[in-house]
TrEMBL record:
Biological process annotations from GO: abscisic acid biosynthetic process; carotene catabolic process
Protein name, as recorded: 9-cis-epoxycarotenoid dioxygenase
Disordered as annotated region, ranges: 1-38, 60-97
Amino acid composition bias (Polar residues), ranges on this chain: 1-33
Cofactor: Fe(2+)
């Protein structure tokens, strides 16, 4: 087996004007030159012009064959100068554990490592699309950070509102090991960032979620599990799957206890904080008394859950039930619905018949129904045989929404309503309007539908839309909520969660411009289409705005958002009054917080009941 690597990333030597995704972590090995990435010619304004000069790989990923094939000179860059970053070792610098393998396993491990070295060497001869190139996907503040133990008494500008008493947690992708091949931002290991509030003071910590996948890779000192989006393309993707299953066959790795990264969603339910990605069971993460985080383990709801669960389950604010979906890309049933009572008792699965496995990242609930999107982005693993991506935009399929009663025992009475050319990666809310026999769905309709996963020249648009599903006629209508003159990309956000599934007037959504960065957030009046914007500031960008309710009025509360200053290379947590959009306080953070995904807030009274 190749010599183990440090579980820290290595600095990348770059032209001084090129922003590096690897600046935060120290160098421990000699460089291996990499073929510069060449973006296919395109009229797209997002053309990548920044190439790596040299890339220091962990020791086990220094293929001898690359020494003669990577002499291409580095290309120049037009990117602006980035301030010098601090370098920090990971707080958890465990060395790989000695493996208790028999002679057959040792021989198989050596042979399969040689196969992987040849595969990596072959892959590096071909340019990667920007949707799978790590130098694009994890550049700048999308790059990973080391863990940070709880640090208290953080500097605060302004005053933290008294009602903010508890912990704000946000999930994100943070690869522990440097990618050796294709990597999509969604592929990174899960890391939870936590800001705990106590008596007007704040602390900060961030920790990896110790998934089964991450634990095994740490013991081996290298990444060995296939990356679902970045690596599983075409013939090399098939080769990586075969490599993984061969290692599994010899007992070198074990995927039977989950392969997920737990990097997307967070929900606090039945006294458990759950970190989720839709490719696995949730992971139970515990917040310690001093504001740190620790992983308890993979959570199957006391043996009740034996399938994956998507990263956006919905807690009904009235009865406290948790509603969820599970989808499978390999075998039928491709989709299941289930729910949990407030004390964690699971309902029987409701199998929802689909013709093919479908990307289903989110769904919605109303007072009585579950709203299930069956859209045009599907999984076709056979596309890999012809060299393509298994995530496919099927232009011949008609998007539709399924309406299922929350307490349904089966899907026989499920009503499907077509909604042509509609792809919503996220749904912000839904409610019933009995006077018109309609279910109203609020979501951001994205075009091109597969642009997050597959490279294309068309600019991404994410249009906040109202979709009306008529339960009587079986017809749908769709309209943009914001006027053409004010149209902006709105992605990631929420409504007041105390009113989830009921009619809401306001939504708080990330201003995803310039895509994929977030320059601020918008408070949108869903009735009038009026938009009020809050901007983070010059060269400052953030992510999902979290709305924390406080009072009887729907918009009475505060917005919490991690914000990063790309000029000063420092991060903060901003607290904004949701009614007047005025900054209440800014908490200076001791560590950079990368752009990430979704979060939640847990009040102190609930923290005291943690399992």
């Amino acid at each position: 087996m190749p010599s183990p690597a440090s579980n820290t990333w290595i600095n990348t030597t770059l032209p001084s004007s090129c922003s590096s995704p690897f600046k935060d972590l120290p160098s421990t090995s000699s460089p291996t030159t990499l073929i510069p990435f060449k973006k296919r010619s395109s009229a797209n304004s997002n053309t990548i012009t920044c190439s790596l000069q040299t890339l220091h790989f962990p020791k086990q990923y220094q293929p001898t064959s690359t020494s003669t094939s990577t002499s291409t000179k580095p290309t120049t860059t037009t990117t602006s100068t980035t301030p010098t970053r601090e370098t920090k070792p990971l707080s958890d610098t465990k060395q790989p554990l000695p493996q208790k393998w028999n002679l057959l396993q040792k021989a198989a491990a050596t042979a399969l490592d040689l196969v992987e070295t040849a595969l990596v060497s072959h892959e590096r001869k071909h340019p990667l699309p920007k949707t799978a190139d790590p130098r694009v996907q994890i550049a700048g503040n999308f790059a990973p950070v080391p863990e940070h133990a709880a640090e208290h008494a953080l500097p605060v500008a302004g005053k933290i509102p008294k009602c903010i008493d508890g912990v704000y947690v946000r999930n994100g992708a943070n690869p522990l090991y440097e990618p050796v091949a294709g990597h999509h931002f969604f592929d990174g290991d899960g890391m939870v960032h936590a800001v705990k509030f106590t008596n007007g003071a704040a602390s900060y910590a961030c920790r990896f979620t110790e998934t089964q996948r991450l634990t095994q890779e740490k013991s081996l000192g290298r990444p060995v599990f296939p990356k679902a989006i970045g690596e599983l393309h075409g013939h090399s993707g098939i080769a990586r799957l075969c490599l993984f299953y061969a290692r599994s066959l010899f007992g070198i790795v074990d995927g039977s206890h989950g392969m997920g990264v737990a990097n997307a969603g967070l929900v606090y339910f039945n006294n458990h904080l759950l970190a989720m990605s839709e490719d696995d069971l949730p992971y139970h993460v515990r917040i310690t008394s001093n504001g740190d985080l620790t992983t308890v383990g993979r959570y199957d709801f006391n043996g009740q859950l034996n399938s994956t669960m998507i990263a956006h389950p919905k807690v009904d604010p009235v009865d406290g039930d948790l509603h969820a979906l599970s989808y499978d890309v390999i075998q039928k049933p491709y989709l299941k619905y289930f729910r949990f009572s407030p004390n964690g008792v699971k309902s029987p699965d409701v199998e929802i018949p689909l013709k093919e496995p479908t990307m289903m990242h989110d769904f919605a609930i109303t007072e009585n129904f579950v709203v299930v999107p069956d859209q045009q982005v599907v999984f076709k693993l056979t596309e890999m045989i012809t060299g393509g991506s298994p995530v496919v935009y099927d232009k011949n399929k008609t998007s539709r929404f399924g309406i299922l009663h929350k307490n349904a025992k089966d899907a026989n009475a499920m009503l499907w309503i077509d909604a042509p050319e509609c792809f919503c990666f996220h749904l912000w809310n839904a409610w019933e309007e009995p006077e018109t026999d309609e279910v109203v769905v609020i979501g951001s309709c994205m075009t091109p539908a597969d642009s997050i996963f597959n490279e294309c020249d068309e600019s991404l648009k994410s249009v906040l839309s109202e979709i009306r599903l008529n339960l009587k006629t079986g017809k749908s209508t769709r309209r943009p909520i914001i006027s053409d003159a004010e149209q902006v990309n709105l992605e990631a956000g929420m409504v007041n969660r105390n009113k989830l599934g009921r009619k809401t007037q306001f939504a708080y959504l990330a201003l995803a411009e310039p895509w994929p960065k977030v320059s601020g957030f918008a408070k949108v009046d869903l009735f009038s289409g009026k938009v009020k914007k809050y901007m983070y500031g010059d060269e400052k960008f953030g992510g999902e705005p979290l709305f924390l309710p406080n009072g009887e009025h729907e918009d009475d509360g505060y917005i919490l958002a991690f914000v990063h200053d790309e000029k000063e290379w420092k991060s903060e947590l901003q607290i904004v009054n949701a009614q007047n959009l005025k900054l209440e306080a800014s908490i200076k953070l001791p560590s950079r917080v990368p752009y990430g995904f979704h979060g939640t807030f847990i009040h102190s009274k609930d923290l005291r009941k943690q399992a």
